[in-house]
Write a structure and sequence with these properties.
With 350 residues, the chain is an alpha/beta fold. Helices cover 45% and strands 13% of the residues. It contains 13 helices and 13 strands.
Length: 350
């Protein structure tokens, strides 16, 4: 990509989009097109077509999506499939119509079958049933990568898809009702540490800054009320109770590494090199129990970490085979401990 190329990064305020913008600017790309949802709602086809016609981006990073953890996926099933389907369809069709040179579509490792062999190879797609707890999101992401493939085959476009593993990092969502496992762990263990030290004002400040919710209203916000609500979420000064058994294994990739991989592929490789899609991850995994212990150590919580086995575990294991990405010359460089430490430092500084 030329340093002056017109580059549209959708979802630039989200975890992935903000990292792509951050790394692009660091590398000297300055002609970036970004829009908030109020400025451009990617679910509205007319708005999307008008934007592409007027701004004529040369490269597109399709990072906008409705995302969340198990609770959010189970609660907002229709929203997860509809929003993600129409966002992808509108952006991909508009890119084709306006002659975008290259589009990079960000997918998710949840596209793979629940019980697929490990590590997950790209060819395992659609070889079995999906994990029910995130099926709506996965179906939308599968549709997006198929759209890219079939537009390439019918129209000769150059649209590529990446399937990243579980992501985390600066700018993540720490809302305990909608966040993924790692940011939820960081926040729960941080709050538990504050409760353990009876740091009442810091507990209240964290809740005010990040999310009232949980039945807490500003005028009613008190330390005792906050303690009661957090206890219902499994967070006390003595222990943190997490969903499931702690046995499922997950792979985690720092979002800056994903941004680096995305820019690497966008600048060097097209769909004929990448294929239908390509995995991006670390090639290493940890159990949720091990993850909780690492986060507890970084955060400094010395209480008990327990597990509620009446709650679902989700997919038993998700580890990506990243051999194809390595063959193209790219590997992740941020260790899990380092990445969690960086994320926690960012969290406590905000």
């Amino acid at each position: 990509m030329d340093k002056n190329a017109r580059i549209f990064v959708s979802g630039h305020r989200g975890l992935v989009g903000s990292a792509i913008v951050r790394i692009l600017r660091k590398k000297g790309y300055s002609n970036l097109l970004v829009r908030t949802r109020s400025e451009l709602d990617l679910r509205h086809q007319n708005e999307v077509f008008r934007f592409f016609e007027e701004e004529k981006p040369e490269y597109v990073f399709l990072a906008a999506a409705k995302v969340g953890g198990i609770l959010a996926n189970n609660t907002y099933k229709a929203e997860f499939i509809y929003d993600n389907l129409v966002i992808a369809a509108n952006a991909i069709e508009a890119s084709y119509r306006s002659g975008v040179k290259k589009l990079l579509n960000l997918g998710s490792s949840c596209v793979y079958p629940k019980l697929a062999p490990q590590p997950l190879k790209e060819e395992y797609l659609l070889s079995g049933y999906l994990e029910p707890t995130n099926e709506p999101y996965a179906v939308a992401k599968i549709a997006a990568l198929k759209l890219c493939r079939y537009y390439n085959e019918q129209y000769g476009t150059n649209f590529i898809s990446l399937m990243p593993t579980n992501l985390y990092g600066e700018g993540d969502n720490f809302n305990l009702e909608t966040s993924h496992v790692l940011p939820a762990l960081i926040r729960k263990l941080h709050l538990a540490k504050l409760l353990r030290a009876n740091q009442q004002e810091k507990v209240l400040l964290d809740i005010r800054k990040r999310f009232l919710g949980y039945g807490l209203r500003e005028g009613e916000l008190s330390f005792e009320k906050a303690k009661d609500v957090l206890k219902n979420k499994g967070v006390t000064g003595e222990e943190v109770i997490l969903w499931g058994s702690g046995a499922p294994r997950r792979e985690f990739l720092h979002v800056d590494d994903l941004a680096e991989a995305s820019i690497f592929l966008m600048g060097r490789y097209g769909y004929k090199d990448v294929g239908e899609f390509i995995n991006v991850g670390t090639g290493k995994d940890n159990s949720i129990r091990e993850l909780a212990e690492i986060v507890g150590s970084v955060v400094g919580f010395d209480g008990r970490i327990a597990f509620d086995t009446t709650k679902p575990d989700g997919t038993p294991r998700k580890l990506l085979d990243v051999s194809r990405m390595k063959s193209l010359g790219w590997e992740a460089h941020t260790s899990l401990d380092e990445g969690i430490r960086k994320t926690y430092e960012w969290y406590t500084s905000m």
